[in-house]
Fold each of these.
Amino acid sequence: MSKIHNKKIVIEVSNLRKSFNGNLILKDINFKLFEGESLAIIGASGSGKSVLLKNIIGLLIPDNGSIKINNINIVNLPRVAKENLLLELGITFQHGALFDSLKNWENIVFKVKNRKKLSKKDAGILALSIIKKLGLEPQILDLYPSEISGGMQKRVAIARAICGDPKILLFDEPTSGLDPVTGSLIDELIITAVKTVGGSAITITHDMASVCRIADKVILIDNKTISWSGTPKEMLKSKNSRIQEFIQSTNPKLFQ
Ligand SMILES: Nc1ncnc2c1ncn2[C@@H]1O[C@H](COP(=O)(O)OP(=O)(O)O)[C@@H](O)[C@H]1O
Ligand SMILES: [Mg+2]
């Protein structure tokens, strides 16, 4: 494994470039995620944050550059090898993406149940243990996603992401569209989830208060590339005009 300052690099994106039909979305993207680190990606709507995440999980293929997960370049990796590597990731998508036809417990254990060929009983026990770790009510397990609130669906999606203890967690806008109280509960959940699996996380978010709660490091995507990076503390003090605009427009109270 690559090591810098004794910390293992779990994701390394180098010179990533992505366009759709000649329309350039991302260029010169370079960053590293270290073991145990929680990274937040911020940027205006449409700046390419979800596209970046989809490249990292292999749903999109970059035009250029490499994406190493645990030191293996996933770009152009044969399908089976890629799928095996991706099993090490826990992901929530921007738009929920729970399976409507499966109960919440079946959603939570979906990936692991198939992989480990768990019995229904053991899968149920596993789902319950995860729900308990996250401090959620067991009653939701036997309901369908449509029978619980949007905030609760996001929590089930996080439970699903951490099932099987993946060491790398990727969350795309986990708090968007939620009220601030539910949003901060989700943040707590993310912090607990990262600690529970002892892993590393990338969270895409619009919410600067959330960044300050969950992240060790922040990167701003602007003008198709990473135009700023630093700690949340540095972000709040930054003189960078885009950072300031971003904070002012989303959470002006953070400046007070
Ligand atoms: N599959 C696709 N085909 C064509 N254009 C896309 C596709 N996915 C995303 N885009 C475009 O890429 C840009 C960045 O999108 P996205 O990464 O979703 O932004 P955000 O930062 O809000 O997550 C947008 O202009 C979007 O329309
Ligand atoms: Mg997005």
Amino acid sequence: MDNTLLLTVHSVLRWAVLLFGLYAITKSARGLLHKQDFTPNHNMAATLFIASVHLQVVIGLLLYVARGWASSFANMAETMGNTTLRFWSVEHVFGMVLAAVIIQIGRTKSKKAVETTRKHKIALIYFTIGLLLILAMIPWPFRADIGRSLWP
Ligand code: HEM
């Protein structure tokens, strides 16, 4: 697949991840505060968030290979000393994969929990940590050297 198309999809999909993340976090926070049952709506919000994150990771991995970032490992000293190279070959990938793992663990634990309060609480904590990590690893336009546009 053409990697400009992949990059465009990856850039747009970031907004779906952020919106679904905020939605899932809001749902679990309201569920906890208002002592709501864990309804199919709460489940749907979490599913949309998880699905968008997984899809973004798969597209990211394809992009990583297609754009040759893995080759930066051949010269580790140069890569780690250069902000742009280090961000794209190491920080973005590891930060985002870690965020996806945290979100997935939260989803699994929340599903397994029996008490509804615990279901909401676990989702709230893990999803919030995961989303904050995602926010920190996005190449926002204001970030020196690595900044990219908000839309492709
Ligand atoms: C929720 C997870 C992720 C989000 C929100 C995200 C977001 C972004 C954004 C906004 C860009 C800039 C797009 C542009 O230039 O217009 C980008 C680029 C990129 N991302 Fe991600 N990303 C995520 C996960 C990943 C993962 C897991 C990988 C790799 C395994 C990855 C690899 C890349 C690569 C290779 C680029 C392009 C760098 C280049 O120009 O060559 N991303 N990502």
Amino acid sequence: MIIYDLICEHSHRFEGWFKSATDFTAQKSEGMLSCPMCSSRNVTKLPTASRINLKRDDSKAPDHVMADVSSTLIEKIQDYVDSHYDDVGKDFPEEARKIYYGETSARNIRGTASVDEVQALNEEGIPALPIPGAPIDKTKLN
Ligand SMILES: [Zn+2]
């Protein structure tokens, strides 16, 4: 959906909603455009103020909007983990086992582990999850 700022011959400014730039041209050439204030059909588009309305277009959300949403979500997860979990780094599998078997105080931890290590932990019944979006370390865990 495109919104154009339109102006009639009497300098009345108003908004026109169009499916596309072509739709605007078609409506104008068919005389379907008229000023809501004076009904003049001598309407032109103001070149500087046209814009695309993302919110009203529910047929297909633009890809970059989806990307914005998911990167924000990932940042929130990372912030939460950063502030609520002890970073034990590469000791993660060892620490996870100690906590699980009661050898150290129970707490939330995060750190790094390989896919195999995570699988081994899960097989022992120790919950470990990879967190999405870590830029370098793809096996970051909580
Ligand atoms: Zn007018």
